[in-house]
From TrEMBL:
CDD domains: SIS_1 (cd05710)
Name of the protein this chain belongs to: SIS domain-containing protein
GO biological process, one term: fructose 6-phosphate metabolic process
Single GO term (MF): carbohydrate derivative binding
Coiled coil: none
InterPro entries (UniProt xref): FrlB_SIS, Fructosamine_deglycase_FrlB, SIS_dom, SIS_dom_sf
Domain SIS span(s) in chain numbering: 26-163
Superkingdom per UniProt: Bacteria
């Protein structure tokens, strides 16, 4: 397949899996020392990548959690962020200014900081108490490797809290992700190419998702289509679609519907039933379409975000090729002062 190196992909995801043992030790140490709440914090893509973890915590745990945009956290200074807090964050380069500043602030109030980075020794690593690195990670494998580690961290906190009886099966599924997600990318490639070819000149897309793939919906719309391809989008939660966005539905509107296998799937189904009555431009990205060999059926919904990410990478890559617009090109982001 074009656009990425399969050997590197397996290596990067394999490194994320190998980090699980050290992650467990770090979380066990924090739990032994005591904590009261978790803060999942990031900027742009790493903010959206925390979304599936918050959904897992919301539906499977009583641990208090907060989901924060780094730049807003710095200004708002949440009162519950203190010495009893654990901040979990990520940055591939480790140089994202807002994330670094937020991590420093968290440490200044006594919170412990867990950071996922490309290379240890980066600026973000210098203001974290626990650092997990993945040196060969890059934009074409970043999300899946971050998810593996984010989920491993949250699952361990839940397990240590006397919750999440699915822990062993879930971690077993995470360990299988290098093979499983490679198969997903292969199966998705042809469909992704056809979509990218058909929509290379479409000027606007409505991206609708929910539940544990809401973060993927938001990230694909903003970080890929807007940032990397300069295509206008709107990401809308399926639960909110009928409270305003419904009026944007017409025969010329392009819809991408992102379907997980969790409890909220019916929300996207409802949107699909409506929009198909008014436009033929409807693309459904559905994690149910893939076999996921070796994954327990009851665990499938929990790993849907990883599957969705693997699917969408193929769409991103083919868009960049058919539109002759490399995913690394920027006009403003980290190019000019702002």
């Amino acid at each position: 397949m074009v656009g990425y190196d399969e050997a590197v992909y397996r290596e990067v995801l394999g490194k994320a899996v190998s980090n699980i043992e050290e992650i467990n030790k770090a979380v066990d140490e924090i739990c032994d020392q005591g904590y009261k709440n978790l803060y999942l914090m990031g900027s742009g893509g790493t903010y959206s990548m925390a979304s599936p973890v918050t959904y897992l915590l919301k539906t499977h745990s009583t641990i208090p959690w907060n989901w924060e945009i780094a730049a807003e956290l710095i200004k708002a200074k949440p009162l519950s962020l203190n010495a009893d807090s654990v901040v979990i964050t990520a940055s591939l380069s480790g140089t994202t200014t807002e994330t670094i500043e937020a991590a420093r602030y968290a440490q200044s109030v006594g919170a412990k900081v867990i950071a996922l980075v490309g290379e240890d020794g980066c600026p973000l690593a210098e203001c974290a108490d626990y650092v997990f690195e993945n040196p060969n990670a890059s934009n074409d494998n970043l999300v899946e490797e971050i998810y593996i580690q984010y989920f491993a961290i949250a699952a361990r906190f839940m397990r240590n809290n006397g919750e999440f009886p699915e822990y062993d099966e879930f971690v077993s599924a995470l360990r299988k992700m290098p093979e499983v997600l490679q198969a997903v990318r292969e199966q998705q490639d042809e469909t992704a190419l056809a979509f990218a070819t058909a929509h290379k000149d479409t000027p606007f897309h409505m991206c609708v998702g929910s539940g544990n793939v809401w973060g993927e919906t938001y990230c694909f719309a903003m970080c890929v289509l807007e940032e990397m391809q300069w295509i206008a989008t709107k990401s809308i939660h399926a639960a909110e679609f009928f409270h305003g966005t419904i009026e944007m539905t017409d025969p010329d509107m392009s819809f991408m519907l992102f379907k997980s296998e969790d409890e909220t799937r019916s929300l996207v189904d409802r949107v699909e039933r409506f929009v198909r009555q008014h436009t033929d431009k409807v693309q459904v990205w559905d994690t149910k379409a893939f076999e996921l060999d070796g994954i327990d059926p009851k665990i499938r919904p929990l790993v849907s975000p990883l599957v969705m990410s693997a699917m969408l990478e193929r769409v991103s890559t083919h868009f960049s090729i058919v539109r002759d617009h490399d995913l690394d090109i920027r006009r403003y982001y980290r190019v000019v002062e702002y």
